[in-house]
Amino acid sequence: MHLTVILAVLFHSCSAEEQIRMTLLGLKPFSSEVDKHYQCHTKPIHSDWIDASLESFRTGWTRDTASDNPPPPIPDFHSMDYFPHYKIHLPNNDNNYGFGVFGCGINRTGKFQNVNISTVRMRSDAYITPGNELVTQTVNIGDKGVNITMNIQSNGQNLIWRHNNTVAKMQRTSNTVTFSISGPIQLNHSGIYECHVDGERHQARHGLNLLLVRGK
Ligand SMILES: *[C@@H]1O[C@H](CO)[C@@H](O)[C@H](O)[C@H]1NC(C)=O
Ligand SMILES: *[C@@H]1O[C@H](CO)[C@@H](O)[C@H](O)[C@H]1NC(C)=O
Ligand SMILES: *[C@@H]1O[C@H](CO)[C@@H](O)[C@H](O)[C@H]1NC(C)=O
Ligand SMILES: *[C@@H]1O[C@H](CO)[C@@H](O)[C@H](O)[C@H]1NC(C)=O
Ligand SMILES: *[C@@H]1O[C@H](CO)[C@@H](O)[C@H](O)[C@H]1NC(C)=O
Fold it and tell me: What's the superkingdom here (predicted)?
């Protein structure tokens, strides 16, 4: 009788419904050309779930060509550290391969399940930076008057705003520029907002903002 109960509990704790928790540690958002990694903390997946893996990814393009937007390498598991974690080493910082928006997801039976976190990385000498140095903003479905603001260090040039890699607006530079989202927030307003000088996106010195939209 006792044995049956124990087995049922074990089976339940391994079932597909189990919630997997993860924390992403994105170190210093304004040092993409110096700092080479980010970390994802979760329990050691490979020893607990044979059908799961931790994936790293580039959340979206933030430069012009595929070769300027390479995917991050496969995470290394650091089991001996005080807090075991997965570490993603971003290579070739001279090429700015560490600039952009990167994340971790847990791929379980071939599908990400509910765990998907991103971190934003810009250069320390970026000449366009998000207002108040807020690299992400969280809003709710239905919110009105949501603005994405950037501070700019050079005047009089043509600026391009992008949402998820697609051009969304053109503007002339001034010290502060704003992208106003018209109407109430919907889920598809979420994603990566970029503001760059026309023709200079490849330099990786522009501003990024990740908008997270909380559902109801
Ligand atoms: C997690 O983000 C990546 C990159 O944007 C995407 O490919 C994947 O579909 C996302 N998964 C979920 C569950 O949202
Ligand atoms: C997830 O796992 C499946 C099956 O192992 C694999 O085909 C796929 O490439 C993995 N990665 C992503 C991002 O789905
Ligand atoms: C967003 O920008 C618009 C236009 O500049 C302004 O009218 C509105 O007050 C701003 N909203 C917030 C919340 O600051
Ligand atoms: C932008 O990307 C986010 C995250 O992948 C997605 O949820 C959203 O629907 C996308 N919106 C558009 C307009 O592409
Ligand atoms: C977002 O989704 C709404 C419908 O829910 C649609 O009307 C709108 O065109 C979409 N916006 C974009 C930028 O895809």
Answer: Eukaryota
Taking the centre of ligand 2 as the mean of its atom positions, its distance from the CA of residue 107, in whole angstroms, is: 6
Q: Which residues pair with 150 in a beta bridge?
A: 130, 177
Question: Which residue type sits at 17?
Answer: E
Give the closest residue (by CA) to ligand 3 atom 8: 145
The pair of structure tokens assigned to 118 is 């991103």
Q: Which two tokens stand for residue 12?
A: 């339940």
Strand 23-25, strand 37-41: pairing: antiparallel
For residues 39 and 93, what is the distance between their CA atoms, to the nearest angstrom? 17
Nearest listed ligand to the Cα of residue 186: 5
Q: Which atom of ligand 5 is nearest to the CA of 188?
A: 1
Per DSSP, what are the bridge partners of residue 37?
A: 89
Ligand 2 centroid to residue 111 C-alpha, Å:
7
> Is residue 105 in contact with ligand 1, taking CB distance under 6 Å?
yes
Task: Calculate what percentage of the chain has a pLDDT beyond 90.
Answer: 59
What are the pLDDT digits (tens) for 92-124? 777 999 999 999 988 776 655 667 899 999 999
